Amino acid sequence: LPLLSTYRVILVVFLLWYTECFSADSHCDEGYLLFGEHCYHFETETVKNWQDAENYCVAQNGHLVSIHKQETVSFLTGVIEDRKDFLSISAKKNNRYHWSDGTPVSHTNWGHGEPNNHNGRENCVEMVTTENGTSWWNDLNCDAHQDWICMIAKGKKPIIPPEPPSPAPGASAISYYQ
Questions:
Q1: How far apart are CA 43 and CA 82, in angstroms?
Q2: Where is the signal peptide (predicted)?
């Protein structure tokens, strides 16, 4: 009987999670997953440094992901465990760590010996995930090119940038700055 109760609890938790993440009324655009009050876009096709990733997210009406509780860490880890080992997240240090949306860091998940600010050049944070689903944070140089996650408020539409125009027929695509 206790084993049956455990399975029921797991099933209820899964159904609540599934409903929250994948409901038809999720208010997230294509390419975004709902969790709580935010929509998340996981970018694994194009790596960027911290500033370029944040600029992209701001242009989409959001910011790089901010993490304020363990449930968010579990959600993110669950989504990315089959994708990549490293994922850039958005804490940046100016005397103290803070999220790119301006909120203070209230939850941490530092790995052993982190943050260590190696060579005085590690002002950003990455979330390292393993094949078994565990994760921890590591500080790293902000110029490192990583995968990244944008976070926008549920119901807010990402801004889709227009396609750049094609060059005129006969025009050279060679840059004058090469």
A1: 13
A2: 1-23
Residue 19 token pair = 């409903």
Q: Which tokens sit at 30?
A: 């294509």
> What global pTM score does this model have?
0.70
pLDDT tens, position by position, 50-60 = 999 999 999 99
Q: Are 88 and 126 in contact (CB under 8 A)?
A: yes
Contact 159, 63 (CB under 8 A): no
Give the Cα separation of 95 and 106 in Å (integer). 15
32-153 maps to which CATH number? 3.10.100.10
Chain centroid offset of residue 130 CA: 16
Whether 103 and 67 have beta carbons less than 8 Å apart is answered as no
DSSP single-letter state for residue 118 = G
